[in-house]
Amino acid sequence: MGAPCPHVPRMEPILSIRGLGKTYASGHVALKSVDLDIRRGEIFALLGPNGAGKTTLISIVCGIVNASRGSVLADGHDIVREFRQARAKIGLVPQELSTDAFETVWSTVRLSRGLFGKPRDDAHLEKVLRSLSLWDKRDSKIMALSGGMKRRVLIAKALAHEPAILFLDEPTAGVDVELRRDMWNLVRELRDKGTTIILTTHYIEEAEEMADRIGVINHGELVVVDEKDALMRKLGKKQLTLHLQAPLAAIPAELAGQPLELSDDGLSLVYTFDVQGERTGIATLLRRLADQGIDFRDLNTQESSLEEIFVSLVHRGGKGGPA
């Protein structure tokens, strides 16, 4: 995992979501009164299981789905009353590979730019295509491209009109490792130039490396929104693993009540403690182990990953698991 990015985004929101809800005709409630501010120039990762409401939220902001209630301002423009101005601020890379198969790469990105009323700027489009390793394919028909290349075309189309806000809905799902690496390099470059990035991803390690802030959504509700580092400090657990000199058949009764787990082979004891706690309890544990004549040959600690925090949040805040 790479080192945390030193970038510190400016604090004013570029996207303000208030009381946003969506109930479909079937009665299914996809979103329940979501409030969220996205800061200008940050990378915000929206995590959640399938059916949690991630795509519904993005689709409303991008004008694809109508909200049942609530409001959204995109760079100061109401997405309903000022649809054209709001939508011109937004680029979307959808999950589905939906492109005009008979168009060339060059013509489809030029058309995409024109749809938003932007003046012709071939130099910008060339720069976008080169950054996505698509320049050599500019005259190729999209139908002739591989799945990974088609994904790159979607990204190029989203960037053609120079949006201030870029939505990436599962952008690296099912793509090769090379494209994923190129994609995240491009995301960093865009953010460094001031573009605000909102992404949904199933690759939690990517969110852990890339995001400034993280939101977790489940059953249409935002379970938590916080700075990535603060989230990991507050909700993270540490585990102390003691590698024993001799195997134990069971945890002694004198240690009952301690947050201990014994490995299947009886050779390791795992003690879980709260990072934020005033006392870890480790000193007491080691004394009790000594009193019981339990010797260990080695020990090491491990902090929980963002994935483990995500799973615990979903189970804690959910109603029976993923939708």
Give the topology, please.
Layout: E1 13-23, E2 29-39, E3 43-47, H1 54-61, E4 69-74, E5 77-78, H2 83-88, E6 90-93, H3 105-115, H4 122-131, H5 147-159, E7 165-169, H6 177-192, E8 196-200, H7 204-210, E9 213-218, E10 221-227, H8 228-235, E11 237-244, E12 260-262, E13 268-274, H9 282-291, E14 296-303, H10 306-317
Annotated CATH topology of the largest domain: Rossmann fold
Quickly name the level 1 CATH class of the largest domain.
Alpha Beta
Order of helices and strands: EEEHEEHEHHHEHEHEEHEEEHEH
End-to-end separation in angstroms reads 30 Å
Relative strand content? 25-35%
* CATH superfamily grouping of the largest domain: P-loop containing nucleotide triphosphate hydrolases
Low-confidence residue ranges: 318-323
Radius of gyration over all CA atoms, rounded? 24 Å
Strands of the biggest beta sheet: in what spatial order? 6-7-8-3-9-10
Structural domain tally: 2
Largest sheet: 6 strands, mixed
Number of strands: 14
SS class: alpha/beta
Number of helices: 10
Give the rounded overall mean pLDDT: 84
Protein name: ABC transporter ATP-binding protein
Domain ABC transporter: 15-244
Pfam families: ABC_tran
Keywords: ATP-binding, Nucleotide-binding, Transport
